[in-house]
Amino acid sequence: MTHLNLTDSAGPCFITHxxxxxxxxxxxxxxMNLRQILAGFTDDELARWPADLAHAExxxxxxxxx
Length: 66
Hints:
This protein is mostly helical. The protein contains three helices and no strands.
């Protein structure tokens, strides 16, 4: 079996054998849906999103607020 000398490599090292590590955090896109993400935004943050998405969330907030 050949062993690589990782200290001499200029680029990143990728381990290609075995399953992925179990201690990696879950990416946020897998734990929240778009509706949950938008609900967590302030009105100012929401205003920076594309008009269709922002408008739908703003309407939902208006209806819930009164």
